[in-house]
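Q: I'm writing up a methods section and want to include an example of the input and output format. Could you take the sequence below and give the corresponding predicted structure tokens, formatted cleanly so I can copy it straight into the document?
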Amino acid sequence: MADETSSSSSSGSSYVDVSVAYVDAPIEVIDYLVVFPVIGPLIMGALCLMLRRSQHLQPGLAGITLAAVFAGNVALAARVMADGPVFMAMSRWHPPFGISFNADALGVFLALSASLVALVCTIYSARSVDSDGRRYGFYPFLLFLTAGVSGAFLTGDIFNLYVWFEVLLISSFGLIILGNAHAQLDGAVKYAFLNLIATTLFLIAVGYTYGLFGTLNMADLTIQIAQTPDAPIGTISFLFVFAFAMKAAAFPLNFWLPASYHTPNIVSSALFAALLTKVGVYALIRVGGMLFAGSFVTFETVLVWVAASTAVLGAVGALGSSDIRKLLGFLVLSGIGAMFVGIAVSTPVGIAGAVLYAVHSIVVMAALYLAAGVIGRMTGSFQLHDVAGLYRASPLFAALFLILVFAVSGLPPFSGFWPKVLLVRATLEAGEGWLTFAYLLSSFIAMIAIGRVWLFAFWRDARKGGSSSGAVMALDEGERRAYISPILLLVIVVVGLGLVANPALELAGQTAVGIIDPTAYITAVSPVLP
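A: Here is the clean output for your methods example:
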């Protein structure tokens, strides 16, 4: 090796010693927690494909897998909170030579929330997804979607962030057309077109970044960007911001969401509402807030207007909707606007509020869509003028839905209250009083919109309103366990996040610190960087 080095040097060519790229140190078993949320669903999704003729086995296999993923994420979150970010290199090839996974507070907080919702949706789907859905791949798609979302939250490499985006998008395409109805195909076209444009812009930005810095590892890239102040960071930042804002369904490129989220099976809608746009928000926080923080402030004014417009127009759209599923789609948009409020302010309090709101939205929107499925099951309709009398049919279900109404409105003592406090505080401290007003206005309109659903569907007597004329189908014991129990689990989380908020607030605070000052994130990787 020394002779080869000398020969290369004497001939005037450069020689790179890559011996430091491969480390022979043993990997601890606990380190595999970082990659298990990706590997587990991928393997079991492939197994479900092979067992597609054994439809009765697939819900159990998916449920066991996602329960294990959730338990692993709980352990991983505890380790991150105790020891800081956790790094793992694939095949021991360390960055920037190989692929790495980095679990920090931001990634693990969102991955934990996503795995919980995926598990609950799997429990709900055991009864709601028919044999056709199982035969044509509902459970493999669900598991691959979970793997893609987890990979996006935990990857330490920008190109692999793109790869996991592709995995979750392909899986979501499969879920949205499952059933082959005309409305599903129409919604899938709108969904696919905008997301493919965003993906193309994302890939262009990734290629431009690699061409400039020669690395795509996030920790290494953060160092390289800081050491290259004359690089055209603004152009790259714009491409990333535009692509991620489009994927997050921010105004004005958000029309695809309310046109598509109401079309598939209600479990698929719940997964989409909970997870897909949050990956765009996460990517914007991670890439824009950590890697390109210096140029990110250039877009602050634009992001402020995007945040206000998305929040208010989403709430107004919800108020004007008569289809419960479309109404919930507009509430997802309004929630995206709230997250963008924290991102636009870009202070530690603002980022903590955005992340905590994302976690709240993951849980609450999944629960609301699952609850909408129960409304459709009991009344045979999702139209507000057709549903009524549900309070008499199921007081427990009415109480659970009312809690979700309070939570999505940001009222205490539920999960939406604390992110609302953080976002209001962040905007006031930043001197953006009008943004505070816009956010609170959107929250008030959203409360009216979702409150109207409860008044029409539950409080109104079926004999006095609605074309259902009292034709409310009561759930039998098996249906109550299958449909109400998963919603109850999510409502317990909603109440817990409101009443016992300190752990979530602490974790959200850690995410903000880790984005504003990524020293700990870089330190977890830097011992193996050349």
